[in-house]
Amino acid sequence: MEPAAALTADLVDEILLRLPPHDPASLVRAALVCKAWLRLVSGAGFRRRFRALHRTPPMLGFLCNLQDDDPRSSTNAAHNNRFVSCLPSSSIITRRRFIPKSSGSWRRCISGWRAIDARHGRVLLHSLPWGIVQKMVVWDPITDEQTELPELPQRLDPYHWGWNAAVMCAVDDGRCDHLDCHRGLFRVVFVGCCVSSGIGMFSRVYSSESGAWSEQLTSTNNHIYGCLHVEPCVLVRNALYFRFKHVAYYIILKYDLSSRQMSGIPMIPGVDTEEFMLIASEDGGLGFTGVEDSKLYLLSKEDTSNHHRWTKSRVINLGTLLPVDALATTPRLVGFADALSVLILSTGNGFFAINTKSSEVIKIEDSREVGGTVYNVVPYISFYTPLLG
Amino acid sequence: MAAPESGDGNNGAARMVTLISSDNTRFEVEAAAASLSQTLQLTILDGGGGGGDGIPLPNVDSATLSKVLEYCIKHAPAAANGGAPNATAVDRAELERFDNEFVNIDQSVLYSLIMAAHNLEIEGLQSLVAKKVADMIKGKSPMEIRRTLGFPDPTPEEQAEMNAHMLEYGWAYE
């Protein structure tokens, strides 16, 4: 039999749909086999079927924020922030990786920008250096589309304001599966706190539909104030959770996406909370994690609105999961992908991604050096099907 | 004229149906196994395939059909349990082992199988074989994929067009 003749369009579709989503280069190369395959892979129907079959979008990579772009420093701009691609480590393809649309524009996009948050296929970036220009942009790395947000009504003086922000699809979970909404409407939730002005904690929401920031909402609870940091927050059950420092200890700020109400959740007293990271717990609620003595401690908050009780849910022994040289110094928690329950650790032997549910570990390969100390990383999770022809 | 005796029984013995390949070989199998095929299921529900009649399958040769039925017989009990929610881990591991062995076959047989699975609408088999071919092309360059699948080399025009796209997607080739 002539194999080429045997493979009808339907069969090719069946085959190409089963290429692994975490290896987008394979799909690009398959698309370039012939014109018929190219048309197939680039079509909207294929894109839809690919997402429907695989359901869970992969982590294509993460944006690396380097240490020297401290929010309080207006002179040190990180011009080397970059996109690190994730790869299947077990395969022989050690250098194939996804790079956002045109390589020229992604470099322009990331150097001189700080990645704040990413969700549902979009990345929220803030211009560097801090304090001189106040520009925020929502970027789609796949289409390279950028939306510049209008300036906030109040100027963000980096010496007196603490703030943080999050980007997401405009439609709540449950009414959107977020598999292919990156071209749709989005919103940006901004939370800020100005201790000296007496306003306390406040929030605004940018809607891409109206193209404007909402009115300012302030917290009715006077006790919720403190210093917020620009770092990725966690989205759990239709609420965003941000860390903030109240006098000398950390508190968690809960922002309810439906009611737009803010409330505070205390951390466990006596726990050294400097190095902890907010995560989604195994049961899908709020959790946090920290590293001590090569062990990853996972705690989850009991799901009661009145009591704030934390219980230890799991201990992951990194000693049995990571190579010895990765543990020569204590690994640092640098990022968490809430959509996948994946923690990213920076170690003496590069980055590792650990699934907090399955304990599966992936070594993230990258042929280039990061070029500085990593402050944090913002995971980018999306399906990718090439648009060619 | 379906055979009434063997066809309608819920009384003990499993109902059997006969399938006839393109080269006129007859295969007698349990209706439950043949019903993994959405296409055959309809015919069987209508009472077809029993007795001496048999269901002709003009697009499937005997070698392919025998392979298809091997798959169906193995998977029928799990399918009868509604995707086997009660299956033990051992059962699942056994099926997985069977599947891995099953697709470890010559390429030409794979193509015949994927076509048969497609025509007969056997979802699990279709998925299994498609995944196997996807694994074969994963990690290969477009030219290697063409050669793996036995495609003729591209015309110079086609190659030029593909080269232009390759430049745009250089990262996929590093």
Write the layout of secondary structure elements.
The complex is a heterodimer of chains A (389) and B (174).
Chain A: H1 3-6, H2 9-16, H3 24-31, H4 35-42, H5 44-54, E1 59-66, E2 82-85, H6 103-110, E3 113-119, E4 122-127, E5 136-140, E6 145-148, E7 161-169, E8 186-194, E9 200-207, E10 212-213, E11 217-218, E12 227-228, E13 234-236, E14 239-246, E15 249-256, E16 262-266, E17 277-280, E18 286-292, E19 295-301, E20 310-317, H7 318-321, E21 332-337, E22 342-347, E23 350-355, E24 361-364, E25 374-381
Antiparallel strand pairs in A: 1-2, 1-25, 3-4, 4-5, 5-6, 7-8, 8-9, 9-10, 9-11, 12-14, 13-14, 14-15, 15-16, 17-18, 18-19, 19-20, 21-22, 22-23, 23-24
Chain B: H1 4-7, E1 16-20, E2 26-30, H2 31-34, H3 38-45, E3 55-56, H4 62-80, H5 89-102, H6 107-120, H7 123-137, H8 142-149, H9 156-168
How would you describe what is shown here?
The complex is a heterodimer of chains A (389) and B (174). Chain A is mostly beta strands and 389 residues long. Chain A has 2 domains: 1-55, no CATH class; 56-381, TolB, C-terminal domain (Neuraminidase). Helix content of chain A is 13%, strand content 38%. Chain A has 7 helices and 25 strands. Chain A has helices spanning 3-6, 9-16, 24-31, 35-42, 44-54, 103-110, 318-321; strands at 59-66, 82-85, 113-119, 122-127, 136-140, 145-148, 161-169, 186-194, 200-207, 212-213, 217-218, 227-228, 234-236, 239-246, 249-256, 262-266, 277-280, 286-292, 295-301, 310-317, 332-337, 342-347, 350-355, 361-364, 374-381. The longest helix of chain A is centred in the N-terminal third of the chain and has 11 residues, at 44-54. Residues 69-78, 87-97 and 101-109 of chain A have low confidence and may be disordered. Chain B is mainly α. Chain B has a 3-stranded mixed beta sheet with strand order 2-1-3. In chain B, α4 packs across α6 (107-120) and α6 packs antiparallel against α7. Chain B has one domain: Potassium Channel Kv1.1, Chain A (2-Layer Sandwich), CATH 3.30.710.10. Classes of the chains: A mainly beta (389), B mainly alpha (174). The interface between A and B is large, with 43 and 38 residues.
